[in-house]
Amino acid sequence: MMTQNTATIDPKEAAHFGDMAADWWNPAGSSAMLHKLNPVRLAYIRAAIDQRWPGDAHGFRPLAGKRALDVGCGAGLLAEPLARLGATVTGLDAAPENIAAAQAHAASQHLSIDYRATPVEAMTDTGFDLVTSMEVIEHVADPAAFIAALASKLAPDGLMILSTPNRTPLSRLAMITIGESIGGIPKGTHDWHKFITPEELTALLEQAGLTVIDSSGLSFDPGRGFTLSANSAINYLLTARHRQA
C-alpha cells in the first residue's frame, strides 16, 4: 500500500527498473546507456565538488570527510565512484532487486556503501554534503514532493546535483523513438510527458528553498559520444544550493 511517506514512488517504475537489476553492471546490457553517460556526469560532479570545496583539483579523494546521498541509485553506478572519491555514501532505491545487486557489487569491490530500499521521504538522516539524483525525477509520481524531500536531506552548505531529460521534440526522438528501438534503452523506460524542462525543475528547486548555481546541457556527438555542452535540448544537469538568507 502506498503511504504518504512513499508518495513519490511510482510502483510500475520501480518494478521496471527492478527487472533490470541483474544486468545493471553489464556495459553492453540493458543499462548500456547509463554506462556511457556516467563518465560525463562524473566530470560534471567533480567540477562542482572542486568549486564548492577547493583543494587539490587532481586529488583522488576530494569528498573525504563528506557525506553523500544518491537517490535512485540503481545498482550503484554513481554511488561507487562517489565512495572512491572519499565520501561516506548512502544509496537509496525503490527496487529491492537493485539494492541487492548494488550490495553484491560493492562487496566485490571492497567498498562500504550504505544501500537501502527506502524512499527518500521515509529516511530520517539529514545533513548530507552532497545529494545526487540522476535520471530519476522523470520517473516519480510527484516531482515537487520529491524535490522537497531531497532538499530536506541536504546540509545547509551542501550541493544538490540532478540530471534529467528535457521535454523537447528532440528528446522524444533521441530517447524514445530511437533510443528505445535501436539505441539500447529498454522499451517502456520513458514517458516523454513526464520529462521536465530546466525552467520547470528550477521552479521546483526554488519552491524547496534552493537556488540553481550552475547548469549544463548533456549532448551526443557521433565522434565523441556524450559530452557536456551549452545545448540542453536532450538532457541536462543542474547544481543547486540552499538559498542564502
Automatic annotation (TrEMBL):
Domain of life: Bacteria
Key words, A-Z: Methyltransferase, S-adenosyl-L-methionine, Transferase, Ubiquinone, Ubiquinone biosynthesis
EC number: 2.1.1.222, 2.1.1.64
Cross-referenced SUPFAM superfamilies: S-adenosyl-L-methionine-dependent methyltransferases (SSF53335)
CDD domains: AdoMet_MTases
Residues reported in the UniProt entry to bind S-adenosyl-L-methionine: 41, 72, 93, 134
Presence of keyword Methyltransferase: yes
Catalytic activity: a 3-(all-trans-polyprenyl)benzene-1,2-diol + S-adenosyl-L-methionine = a 2-methoxy-6-(all-trans-polyprenyl)phenol + S-adenosyl-L-homocysteine + H(+); a 3-demethylubiquinol + S-adenosyl-L-methionine = a ubiquinol + S-adenosyl-L-homocysteine + H(+)
Leading EC class: transferase
GO biological process, alphabetically ordered: methylation
Pfam families for the chain: Methyltransf_23
Recorded GO MF terms: 2-polyprenyl-6-hydroxyphenol methylase activity; 3-demethylubiquinol 3-O-methyltransferase activity; lyase activity; polyprenyldihydroxybenzoate methyltransferase activity
Similarity section: Belongs to the methyltransferase superfamily. UbiG/COQ3 family.
Function per UniProt: O-methyltransferase that catalyzes the 2 O-methylation steps in the ubiquinone biosynthetic pathway.
HAMAP family: UbiG
NCBIfam families (alphabetical): UbiG
Full protein name: Ubiquinone biosynthesis O-methyltransferase
Organism this protein belongs to: Sphingobium cupriresistens LL01
Gene, per the UniProt record: ubiG
